[in-house]
Each structure stands twice: as structure tokens, then as C-alpha cells.
Amino acid sequence: MGRAVKVLQLFKTLHRTRQQVFKNDARALEAARIKINEEFKNNKSETSSKKIEELMKIGSDVELLLRTSVIQGIHTDHNTLKLVPRKDLLVENVPYCDAPTQKQ
Questions:
Q1: Per-residue pLDDT for the chain (104 aa), expressed as one digit of tens each?
Q2: What angle do CA 95, 19, 47 make, to 5 degrees?
Q3: Is residue 99, in this structure, part of any structural domain at all?
């Protein structure tokens, strides 16, 4: 697969992730859209293979971080936030254990 195709694929993946993570939050959706587009536009003329690979790694890491670590919070009161976790965030939830076992 060509490098341009991989870059475009990452661009689309970041936008899809943005839409899932910031669903129903117009301000965050717009800010993320602008930032993604800005970063890709700023590096559009990059020709160094090493630099492009580095930038793609950063983009992939950002996508993973957004997908696995960001949770929405909605202000419900003056000092209260309602957290809205996505289902994919709760998949690897490990229950609390008072007596952890030793690793062997």
C-alpha cells in the first residue's frame, strides 16, 4: 500500500474516532476537526520518509489515546459532571480486588 493511501487512511480514521469520542458535543467535534485538519495541512509538503513515518506514528498514537482514554463529561450542576463512557471503554474493566495475588 502506498504511503499516500496510508496517510489518507489515518486521516479518515482520526476523523471517525473524533466523531465517536465527541458525539453530541458540537464544540469538541469542531475543535478536533480543526486540529486534525491543521496538523495534516501543516505537514502536507513533508517529503522525508523518516519524518512521515514519525508523524504517522504520532497520529496513530493520538487515535489510540482518543479511542481508549477519553471520556465525555456533561455539566449537570454547578459542581457536578455526568460521565458518559462509551461501551468500548468498559470492555477491559477489571473489578477491584482487596487482596491482589502475587505474579509468579
A1: 688 899 999 999 999 999 999 988 899 999 999 999 999 999 999 899 999 999 999 999 999 999 888 888 888 888 898 888 887 776 655 666 666 676 65
A2: 110
A3: no
Which residues span the domain enclosing 64?
A: 3-89
Cα distance from N-terminal residue to C-terminal residue, the chain: 43
Q: How many domains does the chain have?
A: 1
Task: Assess if residue 96 is contained within a domain.
Answer: no
Residue 67 lies in a domain: yes
Q: Assign 3-class secondary structure to 32-43.
A: HHHHHHHHHHHC
Provide the grid cell at 12. Answer: 479518515
In the chain, the amino acid numbered 95 is P
| pTM of the full structure | 0.77
- The contacts of residue 36 (CB under 8 Å, 6+ apart) are 11, 14, 15, 18
In a domain, 100, yes or no: no
Neighbouring-strand partners of residue 77: 80
- How far is it, in rounded angstroms, from Cα 8 to Cα 43? 13
